[in-house]
Amino acid sequence: MKKTQSFPYLLRLILIVAIAGLVYNCTDEKYKESTDETLNITEFLRANDEYSDFLEILKITGYDSFMNTYGTYTLFLPNNEAVAAYMADLGVSSLSEIPLEDLQELAKLHILDQVINTTTFTDGKIATPSLQGQFLITGARNANGTSNITVNKDARIIASNIEVGNGLIHVLDKVLRVADQTLAETLEADPSLSLFTEAAKATGWFEKLDQPVTYNSDSIPSYLTVLAQKNEVFAEAGLDNLEDLKARYSHLNDPTNPADSLNLFVAYRILPGLNYMADLAVTPAVTTKAPLEVITVKLAVDTLLLNEETFNGVLEKGVVVNRPQSDITASNGVVHLVNENFFIKKRLPAPVYFDVADQPEFRQLSSVFRVPGNSVYLKKEELSLVDWPDSQSLGYVAAAIGDGAFLSQAWHGDVIDMVRFRNGFLDPITFDTPVIIKGQYKVWVSYRSNGRSSAATEVRFDGVALPRLINFREGGNTDLPERVLESQGYKRHIEPYTNRFNCRLVGIINVETTGRHKITLEAIQDSSNGNTWIDVIEFRPIDMDQLYPKFEAGGDGLIYQ
């Protein structure tokens, strides 16, 4: 049986291979496979004069003793030339002239409390923060025909993976600098972001971006992420100055008003939390400071796209995040740059027909996906958008045409197959939905009935239980008029219809934010000894006809009245 890997794993593997190629093929880097393993970091520095200046930093700060003890550290080690350039930049002739607190922060920025080999680097932040608290960013740079690994976009690794008794050392040609500017100061310091900075000031957000990090009662820090855009991006959209921005967006003529469109324009570009590119790449949707508004995120090869979605069969192109110029660390957050002007997408609620069998990992199996008579079962670690608490496999079945179990009558002729859906067997199971536009919806779950399946299943949307249970043993009704059946919370969702299938209204939801959500099914009776087959989960706006369109049984089409 062919297996697929989850998306984050594939991304990680691709980036590891790319970075590893640089590590082992660069021409001007020195590599020391090992040293005497009895030498810890401090002893190694004492034994190598080219690192005496950083050793002096450790001595002044008092960190030389703990860097000589047992542990698992990674040291990004500036050589003497790098430290000399750093002192020259500060205008000092001795390390003792630098305030002790500054040296302490500097030293801690170069140390990670975990062994990180260059083969595990990705194009982005290292998952483990430095002892100083800020994350380090790794990448690749080509200069004069030579490729090098970079740290924080500027320093080159010139010798890597030096083994010592308490960890690894990577040698740098520059000293890493602590990001001591706030987000507001970072924006203001860049002339190419002057219009964005003006907009932030005019709306009052500049002051909020200038605040130091604080922690709430749950110890959650107040980091923010900013999606900024350069003056040239504004100019391409016909916006050359603040007055142009006000004319287009400030509908209340009061940018400081949180309800004003210009205020929302800026707020929509500010995300709560510390979201580096690596974090965004594995997050389908992120919340913003614009009330109840989200931004969807999609990774296309190595490009991050914001708000690229298909609605009603029409692809809406996304906004590209400028990867080389992003991941700018500030003292209270991180800044990314985008290549296009964008605003909050205003949409009316629209129906979402969620074919739960259409998972990306199943779709990749071209010999199985929607090929009649084929099936596959995958573990949860192989599926990126489905989760359950045990080790059972989730099945995909593309039924044989005209099969005796009538699975072929499902929409697209395929279903999700849950064997023995009960506690300890795929229960509860949670699906990530497609993007749902904010609004009120009726939620319908359709399935192929089975007398040995769960007789009572609860459905939860974003953790909130819906009022009606599903009895997966209950078949469809072919006698009652459809509108009468609808009033009782049932319908015939496929055409032509077979009573082997049923469709249950489980409740009404209020979707407060546009984006992807979670829908969970949990069997509350442990009596299931057979298969549970789910066809489609529908989210229909409450003011929409709930019966039409129907789904073509065994086909791909929609059938209108």
From TrEMBL:
Transmembrane segments: 7-24
Keyword Metal-binding: no
Organism superkingdom: Bacteria
Domain (FAS1) ranges: 38-176, 180-342
Keywords associated with the record: Membrane, Transmembrane, Transmembrane helix
Keyword Transmembrane: yes
SUPFAM superfamilies for the chain: FAS1 domain
PROSITE patterns to which the protein is assigned, alphabetical: FAS1
PANTHER family hit by this protein: FI19380P1, PERIOSTIN-RELATED
Name of the protein in question: Fasciclin domain-containing protein
Organism (species): Leeuwenhoekiella parthenopeia
